[in-house]
Amino acid sequence: MRKLSLLLAAAAALSIATPAIAGPAEDFHALMNDYWATYLKDNPIGATFTGVTTYDREMGKFTLAEFDRQAGEAAAFLARMDKIAPAQLSAADQANYAILHRLLSDAVEQNKFGERQILYSSNGSFHQFLASLGEQQPFHNYADYDNYLARIAQLPEAMGNIASISAKGAREGYVQPCVTLGNVENSITGAIAADPAKSRFYTPFAGAKPGTVTDAQWADLQARARDVIATKVNPAYQNWATVYHNEVAPKCRNSIAVSAMPQGKKYYAFLVRQQTTTNLTPEQIHQLGMSEVARIRAEMDKVAHDAGYPSREAMIARMRTDPKYFAKTPDELMAAAALMAKTIDGKMPTLFGRLPRLPYGVRAIPLAEAEGNTTAYYVNGSPDAGTAGTYFVNTTHLDQRPLWELPALTAHEAVPGHHNQISLQQELDMPTWRRYNAFFTAYVEGWGLYSEHLGIELGLYDTPEKNMGRLSYEMWRACRLVVDTGIHAKGWTKEQAVAFMKENTALTDANIDAEVNRYISTPGQALAYKLGELKIRELRAKAEKELGPKFDVRRFHDAVLGQGSVPLDALEAQIDAWIASEKARS
After folding, report:
1. What is the dihedral of CA 399, 316, 454, 497, to 10 degrees?
2. Which of 254, 277, 311 is the endpoint of a domain?
């Protein structure tokens, strides 16, 4: 026995001294770890939002040379991946491989286009994101506040680079259309506060002192914050506003199609592939949109008829103008949005077996950004960083924000839509980079639109007006297929796009104008919603047919959400496998 023990000890020692030869799985796991470490270092603000504090004092670099360097890193990772045979990996890692390969390939391809120099739009700009940092990132102790001040002190360089890139792009013809730029300059100057204590950048210091910080430390932090805002932040934004006013806005283009810019046709084709994760052509998408518009219009006609109106147009005209359908104050609108959110919260267990632990709040879109902005949007939180999700609601132009749209709007942006899906993804047992950095628009927005349809099962549309509001929202997304491709591939004017939206949806004039500006300035993104929703509904119908009485909607939704955001072809394979496993269950 002693001799056997010595032999076993010798063998163990030999195995330690002679490391095993790494196989494909080990190589790929090392690559994923390297990729995530590189991503966090290259994106320090993103690292903060995932709970990684290593780079909390850094702003990140915003130069074309840095864009090229990061694209080179992506290309190097792709070269490493090409040496690994996916067939030799586990099923889970094959999925990781396919998703990472797509993300890296898209990053390399997108960097080749001159349109990368357009860093602003009517639908949101980088300067607006930076202005929201103090409202979104976590603050728990003295170091968090101190690091934040060190970060925003770097804004002069960051904003200077954004201004330089945008001005260079404008000189080369890479600029937004004039018709979309109404509020862009105001969104820059709106971040400049004469009183630093009223700046959005001062938000972390405007509330109560945290218990982990002494009175003296808090007073010092507040004083330093006011100084940084006055001497760094405000001048940085004023410089960008000046460059925008003098060198960027005057060069705006009269054409609205992205195809009118250099490389524009190829760029739009890339965006369509990237945003939809399909190989559909713009013409195919356009025709699908026309078909959906006809189908939804028939449903709207029936709702109007059943409600006693002579026509769909008559019902929508009243819904757009009757004062009883509109809040009289911002607080009234926010109260209605919050009540709707909590009402849906109470119904969620009926459709889902697994719910996220992370909560969400409801807030008004900051006034400096609200003008010309969308009706609402969601900003995700982070369980690792200790921040909640936020459902933002636009409280400007109250006569354009009907209360009957709140059920569909809330279902999409909060629950069971974006907050539910994204927060669950952050809790899944998968590589961290997938939990926080793998988002495919067709899946994410497809789920949001599918969630609006789930409002039927949740009992949200309990009046004809709310149901017409839901159909109008679905029609809105179907119109996007027609309008986005019409503008960027078929030569439509803005007037044509607005007229098509007004004829077919119940959206108010302000919303239609903001939405069309969005499709013009952010090509391709709007196509993802309807294509993703149609795929999810198609897969549910398939599951219901094949499983019959064994179909469980809660288990189906858990399966759709169970791998996080994936391309639509991967989602189809995922649900096919789930259907097979459900058939095998006793």
Report:
1. -80
2. 254
